[in-house]
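Researcher: We plan to redesign the surface later, but first we want a full-length starting point. Tokens attached.
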């Protein structure tokens, strides 16, 4: 089986990281992978052991030359199947290119934002199949009129073993210049409005009154950093909050965090939450998108309504003040991640889908 994958993300997190997991698993199953990605992207290096890499310019939805570049690469490799993994421009053209090439095509949808139904139906009708990474995204697609017979849910995965690291709080305290005994909240998300950082910042003065040593670390980058920093300064929180940017050592960091908070307004699934659960870290998050498929209220964390700062304050206060409850939630989260979100399970589900699509394609050709 020869598959051409297309991923437009530049950084190795979120969807691009999931593609890397998939490529590695498929290569172990004997699949010949080819990856088409944007120039100077991190996935080009990370996926090189598992796929032949082609890098081309990708300029988003208005890049009308993209399909010609995609067709050129596809004709050179002659794949059996075309798998699109991104939205930015490639989702519009991928199914069309599959039709031109005469091969099955599928797309993985990772976000739960809604589209104008007539446009969604027109765009996705060219694909043989659509994969949603959460049941919530699947329901969004169906509400837009996408054929349920061409839609499946295959959840994102986490490398469970990678996050089974010992807790080294002495190293962590030195790395981030925090008191060794300070409780620490971690927020692992892009610094963009829909991730909801502001709702957490709004309640930090009150949390500081209850937990004077509390520290908050924002992991990630994005266009909101400057405005978030201004908001922090205006609330006299400069010594309490740290911007850590993207880190490649999150498996070592997670065991040192007391609580992961994810106040997102919109979320497809939340890979960072899978990582936190796998590392045994309790979570406070919102009932947004596919998050409730990872965070089960009262089992491995607390769920609050998006944008409800008071409810967020109560949930965080409860967990910071109850170490036994944090430990119980952490154990439950680790067990859930191992059983429901393994890379092996994701790869098996994709292999079954690929086989089904190729059988259908062969049947139509008879």
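Model: Full-length starting sequence:
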């Amino acid at each position: 089986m020869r598959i051409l994958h297309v991923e437009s993300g530049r950084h190795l997190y979120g969807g691009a990281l999931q593609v890397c997991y998939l490529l590695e698993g498929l290569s172990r199953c004997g699949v010949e992978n080819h990856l088409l990605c944007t120039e100077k992207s991190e996935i080009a290096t990370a996926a090189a052991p598992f796929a032949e890499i082609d890098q081309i310019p990708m300029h988003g939805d208005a890049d009308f030359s993209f399909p010609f570049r995609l067709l050129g690469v596809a004709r050179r490799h002659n794949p059996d199947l075309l798998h699109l993994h991104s939205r930015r421009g490639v989702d519009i053209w991928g199914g069309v290119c599959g039709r031109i090439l005469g091969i099955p095509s599928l797309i993985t949808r990772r976000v739960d934002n809604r589209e104008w139904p007539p446009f969604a139906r027109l765009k996705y009708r060219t694909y043989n199949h659509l994969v949603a990474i959460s049941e919530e995204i699947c329901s969004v697609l169906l509400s837009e009129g996408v054929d349920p017979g061409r839609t499946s849910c295959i959840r994102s995965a986490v490398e469970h073993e990678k996050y089974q690291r010992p807790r080294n709080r002495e190293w962590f305290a030195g790395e981030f210049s925090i008191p060794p005994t300070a409780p620490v909240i971690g927020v692992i998300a892009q610094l963009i409005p829909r991730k909801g950082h502001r709702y957490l910042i709004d309640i930090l003065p009150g949390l500081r009154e209850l937990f004077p040593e509390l520290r908050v670390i924002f992991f990630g980058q994005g266009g909101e950093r400057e405005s978030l920093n201004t908001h922090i300064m205006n609330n006299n929180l400069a010594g309490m909050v740290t911007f850590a940017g993207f880190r490649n050592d999150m498996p070592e960091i997670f065991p040192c965090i007391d609580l992961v908070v994810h106040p997102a307004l919109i979320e497809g699934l939340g890979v960072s939450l899978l990582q936190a659960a796998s590392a045994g870290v309790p979570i406070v998050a919102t009932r947004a998108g596919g998050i409730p498929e990872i965070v089960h209220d009262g089992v491995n964390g607390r769920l609050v309504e998006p944008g409800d700062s008071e409810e967020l304050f109560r949930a965080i206060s409860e967990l910071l003040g109850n170490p036994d409850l944090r430990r119980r939630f952490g154990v439950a989260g680790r067990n859930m991640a191992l059983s429901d979100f393994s890379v092996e399970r994701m790869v098996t589900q994709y292999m079954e889908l690929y086989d089904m699509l190729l059988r259908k394609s062969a049947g139509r050709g008879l």
